[in-house]
Design goal:
Largest sheet: 8 strands, mixed
Number of strands: 20
Oligomer: single chain
Strand order of the largest sheet: 9-3-8-7-4-6-5-11
Distance between the termini: 90 Å
Radius of gyration: 32 Å
Strand content: 5-15%
Helix content: 40-55%
Number of helices: 38
Bound molecules: adenosine-5'-triphosphate, magnesium ion
């Protein structure tokens, strides 16, 4: 150990790290240390002067070769104690400088890991005091900031770290756990990549997808940093062995593999040492997040095992750094708890706002029949510069939609919008698939970790990946063509949708490809590669293509169907505009259709939370009065301030006119109140009296449908109103706290609204009192523009959910037109129930 006058030890591995970064070869350094001892000046002098030819001329960029590592001695630092992180990054002080007098600047100036000319000059002219280098601050000290700046410039070409990156690095250097919450594309990866460059130790990164690990390793290799990834598939002992021997600066692993490699990781922690465990996309830990992965939850073993209490050779616990762009307050708490992160964990929180993203929402059936209208503009954008002849592009990967054993439309049939939609359903032979009870397979799940056709790979610095062909430019693509337009990602909810839409876009002349979790993994890798090298203009993907994709020039994210949560939406939208340029995020969804949950195994509590998230997302889509960016960041607990983004459709178009809903609200809530009273008065009233189409008996709580049917029947002025409109009113009343959902597991559309105390107060207010002013939401506006068609088709669509009705329709016994023409048979008992309701209503009116 090298002692300085301040009494602080500078360990040999520190010297090795610094000299390696300067470009000296490992075996030469260790040989020199063996001869002259762990003193930097002596080691450098020995290498430069003692053996003349020892120095590899350091130059910007990459110095170490992979072969250097293979010749590495088994235990180069033999008996030296394992140094701490602060040893590496804050080893020099003013007192050292003073103590070494004139030598100080020469001794310490070559601490600069990337200022290669300074190194040479400093070492070669020992007698002269050196001018201050980039690594010295005004007091002549070398500090963390300087070192970070140096490696940042050398490896990434950036001039400085961002504030939140600095905070995270400070936490790491102080051996603290840290939770980094920062917007998509803000640069979270650097927070865990830089530590690998500041020490000789290894950074272990836990990541949820091979595609993500692959992309990051590829980039690191280009930046001169060796890395590898270990998926959960068939282990490659060669890469795994090298990784566990410390041959790569950064080791990406999936959670499952971390758990399997606990013992080798402990050895790695001993030598050469683990600088940090980074858990990327850490929202996957939480059951309340949008992409829960059970293996992530088991990562608490990291905090439990890699601490100085358990591993005696550690001076400090190995810090954990957890990172995500999409965690609500609830999820954050869950992360800290589930990973058993230290109670001193630093939470680094930045704004989630992405100022260059322009959010828009549009109503669409989002079925094949609406492709032409919805994608006209996109097709025009790409075709404008190339005189499209009408001869479509080659489809990257032809998949027979029939073989997908499900149909896109069938997902939506239960609430399709109008006659056209029904015709589409018929055309697409959806009837066949409707018979199937289980539709789970048609929606895509988040992919498993092994989303590529390889389970591990190594990426040596400045070299091409060994297991991967570097993306080949498509023969059809010149590097400049259409780059200005930038690529587009279209997210669709179903696997079949990806294929259908990609085919449609290809036929329209675009270079498009489908991407979903069920496609061959080799195809998925090909799409990734072609997307990254601009050979593709559009990727039509499910949620399988989302997290962490870092391509700077994505200009458009189109969601063609409602996402499951605002977290998922913001995560996917965050793929756009990572170069800071204006980019569009457009959500197409049906305002008329009731969104459904992706099938998944959930407890009741999780189902409740999942519906809540879906509901928030639906509210976002239907919103007509609040800036979209404001809603999004508020969702993550951030106050946006009074102004909007001035870019989204709401900020541009302004809200619709306010409406006084007092009368409608009064009628609606009176009916609900009557239903409630009816139930409590034990009149044996329930919804099955009203409908005999297999609907559930709700046990005496108010029922939305019954209430609306009653209103339409009994109040002539509301006879033409649409259920969709009343659903909108129910949302407004719920927001105001006047009604609440009584169902145990609330759905996206209110089912059993009951008046609250505030609602009852409102009901008893005088007619001349203040009105109930609100902006109608997007569904209400739409319903007002075409009241009949909407409700009738919704009824029709709902019928399909009933196995009996479906059977009859498929058997041709009943059809929509026939039903429309014929008189609608009132279910027995309907009149009686209405009469009862009337009686209660007039009774309660009399009471008031
Ligand atoms: N200090 C910096 N200065 C300039 N650019 C930076 C800086 N840090 C990171 N970047 C750039 O920001 C881009 C996004 O980085 P990164 O992929 O780490 O984002 P992220 O925060 O992890 O996003 P996501 O949440 O989507 O995964 C990268 O291309 C990176 O080069
Ligand atoms: Mg990231």
């Amino acid at each position: 150990m090298e002692a300085n006058s301040s009494g602080a030890d500078v360990s040999a591995d520190h010297i090795i790290a610094e000299l390696l970064d300067m470009g000296f070869e490992f075996d030469k350094i260790s040989e020199a240390i063996g001869i002259v001892g762990p003193c930097r000046a002596d080691v450098v002098e020995f290498m430069l002067n003692g053996s003349g030819s020892e120095q590899r001329k350091p130059a910007g960029g990459l110095q170490r070769r992979s072969s250097d590592r293979s010749t590495r001695p088994a235990n180069p630092r033999g008996n030296f104690k394992q140094s701490s992180i602060t040893d590496h990054i804050a080893s020099t002080t003013g007192s050292k400088m003073e103590s070494r007098g004139g030598e100080a600047s020469t001794s310490y100036s070559w601490l600069a890991p990337s200022i290669d000319t300074a190194v040479t000059a400093a070492v070669c002219s020992k007698s002269k005091p050196e001018p201050q280098t980039l690594l010295q601050n005004s007091r002549g000290e070398f500090d963390l900031n300087d070192k970070i700046s140096a490696v940042l410039k050398k490896h990434f070409g950036f001039s400085c770290v961002k504030g939140f990156q600095k905070e995270a690095l400070d936490a790491w250097s102080a051996h603290k756990d840290c939770l980094v919450l920062a917007a998509t594309g803000s640069g979270k990866s650097l927070c865990f990549q830089i530590p690998a460059l500041l020490t000789m130790k290894i950074v272990v990164v836990i990541s949820p997808l091979i595609s993500l690990m692959h992309d990051q390793c590829l980039k690191l290799a280009k930046h001169g940093i060796s890395a590898c990834f270990l998926g959960s598939g068939q282990p490659d002992n060669r890469v795994e062995g090298k990784a566990m021997a410390g041959m790569y600066k950064i080791v990406y692993v999936c959670p499952e593999t971390v758990l399997r490699l606990m013992e080798p990781l402990k050895k790695l922690a001993e030598k050469p040492g683990i600088a940090l465990f980074a858990i990327d996309e850490v929202h996957c830990v939480s059951k309340w997040g949008h992409d829960f992965r059970p293996d992530y939850r088991r990562l608490s073993v990291l905090r439990e095992n890699f601490c100085s209490r358990k591993l005696k050779f550690l001076e400090h616990d190995i810090p954990l750094m957890a990172l995500t762009a999409t965690a609500t307050l609830h999820v954050r708490e869950d992360i800290l708890k589930s990973l058993k992160m230290s109670e001193h964990t630093l939470v680094v929180l930045t704004s989630f706002f992405r100022p260059n993203l322009r959010f828009t929402v549009k109503h669409s059936k989002t079925s094949a029949s609406s492709y032409r209208e919805d994608f006209k503009e996109l097709i025009g954008t790409y075709n404008v510069s190339r005189n499209f002849s009408g001869k479509g592009q080659k489809i990257l990967h032809e998949v027979d939609p029939e073989s997908e054993s499900s149909s896109y439309e069938s997902v939506d049939d239960s609430a399709s919008d109008d006659e056209d939609a029904v015709a589409d359903i018929k055309k697409a032979k959806v009837a066949k698939s409707l018979v199937k009870e289980n539709t789970e397979h048609e929606l895509d799940q988040y992919p498993g970790v092994d989303d590529f056709d390889v389970s591990c790979g190594e990426f040596l610095e400045n070299s091409r990946p060994e297991n991967f062909a570097f993306p080949v430019q498509s023969h059809e693509t010149s590097s400049s063509e259409n780059l200005d337009q930038g690529p587009t990602i279209v997210y669709v909810p179903t696997r079949k949708g990806t294929v259908e839409l990609a085919n449609y876009l290809c036929k329209s002349g675009l270079k498009a490809a489908a991407y979903n979790a069920k496609m061959p993994r080799s195809h998925l890798r090909q799409v990734h590669e072609q997307f990254h090298c601009n050979a593709l203009e559009v990727v039509v993907a499910t949620i399988a293509f989302g997290m962490g994709i870092d391509k700077s020039n994505v200009r458009r994210i189109i969601h063609y169907g409602l996402p499951q949560s605002l977290e998922a939406y913001y995560q996917e939208a965050g793929r756009a505009g990572r170069d800071g340029k204006l980019s569009d995020c457009t959500l197409y969804c049906s305002f008329m259709r009731t969104p459904t949950l992706l099938p998944n195994k959930r407890s009741d509590e999780q189902t409740r939370a999942a519906y809540r998230m879906l509901l928030d997302c639906f509210h976002y889509a239907l919103n007509t009065s609040t800036c979209r960016a404001k809603i999004l960041v508020k969702y993550f607990g951030e106050d946006f301030g009074p102004d909007g983004c001035q870019m989204c459709d709401i900020c541009i178009n302004g809200p619709p006119q306010m409406h006084d809903f007092k009368e409608e609200a009064g009628v609606f809530m009176n009916v609900l109140q009557a239903q409630t009273e009816q139930a409590t008065e034990g009149m044996n009233y329930n919804s099955t009296d009203c409908y005999r189409s297999g609907r559930r008996n709700f046990g005496g709580v108010p029922d939305f449908r019954t209430a609306v049917s009653y209103i339409r029947e009994k109040f002539p002025r509301f006879a033409m109103t649409d259920k969709i409109w009343w659903q909108g009113l129910a949302r407004i009343l719920e927001d105001m706290g006047y009604i609440q959902e009584a169902a145990e597991i609330p759905r996206v559309i209110v089912q059993h609204p009951e008046p609250t105390r505030a609602g009852l107060n409102f009901l008893s207010s005088q007619p001349d009192e203040e009105g109930l002013h609100a902006h109608p939401d997007a569904a209400m506006l739409l319903a007002m523009s075409s009241p009949r068609s909407a409700s009738s088709s919704v009824e029709w669509g709902r019928g399909w959910a009933d196995p009996e009705i479906r059977r009859q329709r498929l058997a041709g016994k009943t059809g929509r037109r026939k039903r429309k023409r014929g008189s609608r048979k009132q279910p027995t008992g309907f009149t009686t129930a209405k009469e009862r309701l009337s009686a209660i209503l007039s009774k309660s009116k009399r009471r008031r």
